[in-house]
Amino acid sequence: QGLNPTTVTVNACDGSWHIINGVSDTVHLTSSDSSAYLPPNMAMVNGTATFSGANGVLFQSTGSITVTAADVTSATVTNTATSAAVTISN
What we know:
With 90 residues, the chain is mainly beta. The protein is built from no helices and eight strands. It has strands at 8-11, 26-31, 42-43, 48-51, 63-65, 67-71, 80-82, 86-88. Strands 3-2-6-7 form a four-stranded antiparallel beta sheet, with no helix packed on it. A two-stranded antiparallel sheet has the order 1-4. A two-stranded antiparallel sheet has the order 5-8. A hairpin with an 8-residue loop joins β6 (67-71) and β7 (80-82). The chain is globular and about 40 Å long. The termini are close together.
């Protein structure tokens, strides 16, 4: 909590969970931890965006927390996905 950024990887996938190469959409992250420090939006490279290090998610709360990724390339959000809950403790 509050010490080390967590790496979050977002993949653009087809209906069979294969990564779709060539996708360069922009990803925006939100979290159920309303106090989390979230990185700026990131463009995918070949269907993947990895938020890590200084661009990782820095949780500030403890408990069961999720991260949601949204595709914000178009004027409206076209796709969102929420992670499984992870437990953050001191």
